[in-house]
Amino acid sequence: MDKRDIPFHLIDLLENSTKIAFNALQSLSNAPLPEVVLLNVTGSFPERPPRSPFSLQLMDLLPLVSRETSVLDFKQIAELLGSDPHVQVIILRITNLLAPLTSIQNMRAYILKLRQSGKKVLAFLPEVSTTGYWLATACDEITIIHSSEFEIRGPASEPAFVKEGLAKAGIMADFEAIGDYKTAPDLYRRSEISDAHREMLNWLLDDLYADLVETIAASRKLAPEKVRAFLEEVPLSSSQALAAGLVDAVVYEDQLPEMLKSEMGKPASIQSLAEARRRLLQPISWHHPKIIGVIEASGTIITGESRNLPNLIPLPLVGGPLIGSETITRALRRAEKQEQIAAIVLYVDSPGGVPLASDLIAREVRRVAQKKPVVVYMGGVAASGGYYIAAPASYVVCQSSTITGSIGIFGGKFVLAGLYEKLGIHRLLLKRGAAAALNSELSQFSPAERLKMRTLLERQYNIFLEVVAQGRHMTKEQVDGIGRGRVWTGRQAKELGLVDALGDFDVAVRKAGELAGLSADRQAYTLPIHPGGALLTAPAFSGSAQALVQDTVERLRLLERTGVWAYNLWDIHP
User: Which of 138, 420, 421, 497 is the most buried if burial means most Cβ atoms within 10 Å?
Assistant: First the structure.
């Protein structure tokens, strides 16, 4: 595809002409004006929507075709409501919100923009969870019901250690890691938490908890020490939460119209988004003729093509989406060649994976960034190999709750000799060459083999240090001082120089446009870049049992061949 393939200035003209015509027709409609609009906010809100040939509006018209609402969808809805002069109040009915903290923080930014546009935003929480309340604090007012329990519990971690369980099955995890803080293999090789692991979890939890307290304190105009005191007393009753200033009213949903009477001059007529769309006006906007290309890298990093598989086995690389180095490389090269693409935003949401694959992607990021700005926007986690591919970018943006860093390497194998013995399976190893049995599952590393593995890991770790040092303009000694497996929140990473700015996806897009020299008076189109020849995002699993077994076996063999991982395993939840 070249610059003649997508004449965006014509698309801009056609799109705005269509909107003007649509808005004119809307003015002739007999449907009531959308003055108060209610949005149901529920689900996990992934950052980016899955690839689909349908727009959000078209999906709403197809009852048999549905997908989970994403943060990008939420942004588009917020912009639609914010631009319509008829809309005065937006009610967010927040229930069963399972979104990661980074998605919550991004959605908060869009709520604050709604308020800046002159709209009142009211949060209605039938249930009060940590994520739901964190989102609600961006609103003008927060309401709960009489039977609500105020249960804001703060972040927690429950690391697991399965060494003894594996031993009962005759399996032993023989792993080596660079640095005491590279604790990803501890799940398999330890029976209890190490001092370094505990120290790192504590500084992560401390910062995430401080972030929560500061957010509540600022939005509710309370002293941080008072917020901490309230959170120590949870669960609070609805009346206690009201008296503490944590919420503004205790009402049921049917009482909301009367509650809004003083502002509307009459009991408010509340419409759902589906009802309001019959009269909502489409915003008119003009864009640059240049484009910001968006490439998504979500999942575990491997060599080859991006793929997907249900996460049935709790092992790295075995389940879930896989980021293929060849797929991402082709996408980067395609964006590089398209003249209309002024800059690239690489969305990274990855705990890492194979160092070789990470290095191949990092090399392309560095090379392309010398020709066009490449801005990385991190999702919930961009650690280990996920940080590896981000480090060479022109600029790095993340949220304060993003888990990142984990600059380190580990490697090893599962020794299955005991399992075979329990099963009555007798296997024999015959070899030639000192390293022939290095990855054999029949025995632990010998002292000589362990030295070889340590040497390999040190070499790979040194390459990791070089990539980060060059990308972040540090010395290798500086990177090592904050590396060796240490994991940080986004806020901590900003202070350490691992990222450039805290913010949402729009911050990354604006920075990409700025680095590309695009004027700030027009928006920039964001266009997903597909690599050609294969899907960029991992295709859905086909569903057949035979395919599941074949793909799982293939990935287990990949684990055996790889041996060395730049991977991060974490269990921190709000």
Answer: 138
- Give the C-alpha separation, 264 to 299, whole Å: 47
- The token pair at 187 is 């799940």
Q: Which CATH number fits domain 8-153+234-276: 3.90.226.10, 3.30.70.980, 3.40.109.10, 1.10.357.20?
A: 3.90.226.10
Query: Average of pLDDT values for 152-156?
Result: 91
> Can you read off the two tokens belonging to residue 37?
């609009």
Three-state DSSP string of 83-149: HCCCCCEEEEEEEEECCCHHHHHHHHHHHHHHHHCCCEEEEEECCECHHHHHHHCCCCEEEECCCCE
Cite the beta strand spans of 395-550 per DSSP E.
Answer: 395-398, 403-405, 410-415, 487-489, 501-502, 523-528
Tokens 């009060």 sit on residue: 128
SS3 323: strand
* Strand pairing class (572-573; 156-157): antiparallel
User: Which of 355-359, 453-457, 539-543 comes out lowest in average pLDDT?
Assistant: 539-543
Inform me whether the pLDDT recorded for 317 exceeds 80: no
Which pLDDT belongs to residue 357? Answer: 94
* 442-448, long-range: CB < 8 A, 24+ apart: 442/415, 442/416, 442/417, 443/415, 443/417, 444/172, 444/174, 444/415, 445/174, 445/412
Q: Between 41 and 277, name the one with better pLDDT.
A: 41
> How far apart, in whole angstroms, are the C-alpha atoms of residue 188 and residue 198?
16
Cβ neighbours for 220, distance < 8 A, ≥ 6 positions apart: 137, 227, 245, 246
550 pLDDT above the threshold of 60: no
CATH superfamily membership of 287-408+447-569? 2-enoyl-CoA Hydratase; Chain A, domain 1 (3.90.226.10)
Same fold flag, 8-153+234-276 and 287-408+447-569: yes
Hey, what amino acid is at 80?
L
As given in the structure block, the two tokens for residue 440 are 């054999």
Mean pLDDT of the chain: 87
CB-based burial label for 195 (10 Å; 0-12, 13-18, 19+): exposed
Strand pairing report for 403-405 and 487-489:
antiparallel
d(C-alpha 150, C-alpha 195), whole Å: 34
Average pLDDT over residues 70-86: 93
Q: List beta partners, residue 149.
A: 237
Run of H or E residues at 75 = helix 71-83
Domain spans, the chain = 8-153+234-276, 287-408+447-569
Two tokens at 518?
A: 């695009």
